[in-house]
Design goal:
The complex is a heterodimer of chains A (165) and B (287). With 165 residues, chain A is α+β, with helices and mostly antiparallel strands. Chain A is built from 5 helices and 5 strands. In chain A, strands 2-1-5-3-4 form a 5-stranded mixed β-sheet, sandwiched between helices. In chain A, helix 2 (86-93) packs across helix 5 (139-153). The radius of gyration of chain A is 16 Å and the shape is globular. The termini of chain A are far apart. Classes of the chains: A alpha+beta (165), B alpha+beta (287). Chain A binds chain B through residues 2, 18-22, 25, 41-44, 46, 49, 52, 55-58, 60-63, 65-66, 109, 112-113, 128-132, and chain B through 1-8, 10, 31, 34-35, 38-39, 41-43, 51, 53, 55, 79, 102-106, 108-109, 190-191.
Amino acid sequence: MTQISVRVDGVTYTDEVEPRTLLVHHLRERLGKVGTVVGCDTSNCGACTVHRDGEAVKSCTVLAVQADGSEVTTIEGIAQNGSLHPMQKAFHEMHGLQCGYCTPGMIMASIDLVADNPDPSEHEVREGIEGNLCRCTGYQNIVRAVQQAAAEMRGSTPDTLGAQA
Amino acid sequence: MIPAAFEYVRPSTVDEALRALADGGEDAKILAGGQSLIPVMRLRLAAPSTVVDLTRVSELRGVREDGDALVIGAMTTHSDVVSDPLIAQHAPLIAQATETVADRQVRHRGTFGGALAHADPAGDLPAVALALDAEFVLAGAGGRRTVPAREFFVDYLTTALAEDEILVEVRVPKLAGQWGMHYEKFNRVAQAWSIVAVAAAVRREDGHIAEARIGLTNMGPTPLRATATEQALAGATAGADAIAGAAAHAAEGTAPSDDLNAKADYREHLARVLTRRAVTAAAGIQG
């Protein structure tokens, strides 16, 4: 067992873990952060995406011991004082989900994308979230949601975007 | 799935890492960014007894200049490579190819040296390193040695690295003259491996192509140079016809595999088409 200390959604947790424990399992099973889900188990789908020291990573492809000393943000940690993060709000308003399973990872990947590119084109959004798969294939509204959130986060009103008719 | 149990060691210097590797014996494995190793450990295709995690070996991270060479630390992440100003200036081909590796999340963790040491024939960086005549600096118990790219890639997933050695840095010669570069990749879906890709660096001089260096991804068990095309381009007019004629030789001497993604003859076709596109773009002419 190895002792690790990880700050998750603003709270520091110190635990003994087996080195083979994946970060996603540590988050879900030890810390109860079940908002982060396991989708594919093969590093493809991105459903388990969290931020590690501000960068999106697939938590099924990081060992918990590798997160020692780092700051992890999950989907459960992005709302502020009961208000949804602009990306969460946009996914809600633009109906950027169907079954919802990919949504936590989509939102975390999209926040990471918008941090690098505050005004992504439709193509840039599609490229930027290529590490996340929506098995319902509901990409159209996901892309709209990311662009709407990006507009809100940079403080402007989108002019050409509309909810799906 | 969950990996098999292993001993975990997290050194903070190359010397400590080498000792840990030696202590771990033949079943010890180096963990760089983990974006290839952790998936295969999860599938239990790999079950190392000891994992030596290089994450905290800070001397392996970063890009610097050393005279005529650009030196890229093995643990520099793909995302750091993509945004590095020295790489943009001296070897933009590396940044362009790295940008096509997997997806954003994987590029945040995956490393330049890890991808090269893994030596997947479908990986994008080996052909780029080969095209740029990079040199690999390997550290072992007896000191360091430098291996040229042509000798580093030995076979499928196999490099010149001995079991007790660590890839510490890659030296990329700065190119003198008017060079253009382009990486042309063909794959079917998002975040997929290359079915075939071509890395081209072209030096132009007075309307001619003075020199071309072309690396092929996934045209054999190791990355390959398109030697016949390079020879045909040397001294050729920088025009569409000459480039198309030279690119027709791109599959000569290759040994691509047949698999679910593509038959070998289709890969040969792709090599010719993608070489034409890559050289055209690198030479800066209209295709």
